[in-house]
Request: fold
Amino acid sequence: MEDDREKIFGAIRKGLREQSRIVAQRNPRSPLLSPMSADFDSKFSRFSSELARVGGETFVSNDLKPLLDSVLNRTHAESNIFVYDEIKEISPTGISSLAESRRVAYSSDLSVGYDKREVAVFDSVIAPCVACIAETGTIVFHTEARLPAALCTRLFVVAPAKSLVATLDEIFQEKFSSFQGSNLFFITGPSRTADIEKELVTGVHGPKEVLVLFYRA
Amino acid sequence: MGLQSRNFKELYKKQIRKPTLRTNLSKATLQAVDSRSQSFESIDFDFLQNQAKAIKEETISSLNEYLSQYQDAAEHNRCKVFFAQSAEKARAYVLDVARSHNVHTIVKSKSMVTEELDLVPFLENYGIEAIETDLGEYIVQLAGEKPSHITTPAIHKSRKEIAELFHDKLGSALNPDPPFLTAEARRVLRNKFLSAEMGISGANFLIAETGDAVIVENEGNARLSTSAVKVHVIVTGIEKIIPKFNDLRIFMRVLGRSSTGQKMTSYVSLIRGPRSAFEKDGPEEVHVVLVDNGRSSLLGTQHQEVLHCIRCGACLNVCPVYRNIGGHAYGSVYPGPIGSLVTPLYFGKDNAPDLPFASSLCGNCTEVCPVGIRIHHHLLSLRRDVVRLKKSRLQDFVFRSYRKAMLRPGRYELIGRLGGVLGRAGLLKAVTKGWTRDRELPDFPVKSFRSIYKTGKKS
Amino acid sequence: MRVFLFVPCFVDQIFPNVAVSTLKVLEHVGCEVIFPEKQTCCGQPAYNSGYFDEARLVAMHEVNAFLDYRGTSSEKSIARFDSERDYIVGPSGSCTAMMRNFYPELLKDDPRYEEISRKFSSRAFELTEFISKIIGVDRFKGKLNITVSYHDSCHSLRELKVKQEPRNILTRIEGLKFVELPYTEVCCGFGGTFSVKFPDISVAMAEEKLKNFRVTGAEVLVSADTSCLMHLDGWARRNGTKARFAHIAEIMAESIS
Reply:
């Protein structure tokens, strides 16, 4: 079908013919009224309070143990757990011990263009992230499969301590704008709605529980 | 359903008589106003507003360059970009895409532009099931209604009404508990997500520099509508462009706060294109339909800055008129103060002659607008356009007489005193029915200030 | 300090006591007050109704009534408006906003635009703003045993950015108890011709405002705009709500008598 590009561009040119180009004076300063220190502890404390405010939980540890413990606590023998391969690489022994008591599948098990019903069975997902943002308690994902994390009820996230940045200003930079692939995805707490009488309900379409573990390698 | 904004006077009278509507709306909007204010406490609103406005001014002043840059980037990312000047054209293209993939079911996330295009009923006429998956949108779709708010579509409905609706349409138990109702919707819609072949979404921003579409939401339904499908179609307006990836640092900070009082919404998807070689899921095709539908006619007019709007809905929540009559009164998919601009400016001033007047001009909308649109000033100048367009002999006579009186202080005083005499005799009620139906007239004094002043000076 | 008193048309004709009180207050704080008698109306009714041409003519008449004032025969000296020294002060946030914020927009194509905006618009002040910013609030002393709440008119609050000034004045009055109105920033529903074009919406807003006023337990609802008060008072009387509505100039004048 032929589109209307030229007609629309013609109308725009006509409308703007007597105007000169305006260039915004972009001011790089931070709009935050109280600045945040760059050390991990301050960023961590801000991140966990922001995430807690929207109903998420945060841990910090030298290994994955606290996270795997909560996976065990919140699931049962019949639970299907999806684990991204990156997590297995971080802690092969931890994940294989989890696999002893739970049904575990890995992202490498998925074929390209897999049937989406295959992943609808996973109630819990353990996923890696590329960054976390202290200012807002936000987790940034860039994974080879996006559906498992979007369909599950519980989302467990493993974040390297060094991936924690202070503010949004650090995310919306060249380093992140040049990502490869189809998408970059931000999660700030559980899926939620206030569409019925403004009452907050979590777990509408996506995860009801979101847990983040920062590990210091 | 079409545009009903010509009938504003009948529509709003019907709405204002619903006492539960006013109670629901008051509660919901005042709560939204409070959480908005709280969310801006730790951040410099004026700075963000100035920056957001400046960036939008830059974008609109070079809209063709930025659209062009966006198209190049998006096509480089393997998106298919389609420009549609009219609603018909946009609808036809979406239908074409759906048919060429033999689509039976479409999952849709919230988008004002698709509402504007009446896209869902159109697709359903062609036998394609198109399901709204945002909870509020799903509720109004089930009810056979239209959304009454830009960001909270079912704001006019009580939990009891929703429970009855779910009972009738889905066979759910009659339980007005919001968590129960939400779980019911999740159950039904999950099946739709798993069977749909195509997803439709809007876009909050399109980034010219990178070709990304930014989709902001809270429920996760947009994430699913754009991920669990073979084909993803983005339908949005040509004004949604922002120049740079880095500009998101400003817009992401104002959008969530302005719309729902959140520092950040639960989900933000930056969609760059279809599935890439190293990915295992995601759509095989991404289409972007850029809709004009009246937008370009604002360029070069004094109302150009109305194109800055990012559809946050903050002006609706603070508007005392909206709070009393609700979104359906406006007879347009765009209600509230911004709707009273967008509706006449996009769809024709003669189609909405009363909307610019449906404001007390309190200016609260302008105060909270994150992109600095002087909403109430635009309403004022639209009033002039409407007066010129739609002659009213009575009104013309009233204001001609007003002018004549005000230009002659003697005549002015004489009329004022005559008014006082009539007022004291109770004879003004007949000509001031608009006032006296619900209010008393003031007591009319024997002397005006100027005559008191004159007497005082002489003595 | 010399003040050219600006009296909105409906204050002049319907609420003269507001203007008398304003005059008294201005003299109390040491101003020499002149009332240019050719003034009529700021033009706002026509402007807000979309009749810009009519509004422009009336606005120009108003501007001239001040800028071309040459004194009356009874005045011994020629009281000519000096835009470097003199001020235009009126008991209305709304009409002042018209003169200061909307004249520049309405008159922008007028050849005298520059002059008007410099000599006239920038010299126009609302009463409480003038006393706070120009005179100094400590010049005003009053005493009155009364409990009041304050209604911010939208034009005072959002066009003139006057918020703290009237509160500072009221709380200086000895014996006066001030109670803040819940949702004080919400419009009362007057809105000029809006109040008669959409009376049902307008009074629904008044109802809301008075509900909030009752919560305060105050005797008097005070405002710097008579128009809002006329609307609220009209609704209250129709609905049998007992409340007093007073312009801030009236409360100030009572407190110094």
In short: Chain A has a mean pLDDT of 96. Chain A touches chain B through 84 residues (CB under 8 Å). The helical segments of chain A are 5-15, 40-53, 65-74, 85-90, 92-101, 147-151, 168-171, 174-177. The CA atoms of residues 82 and 125 of chain A lie 5 Å apart.
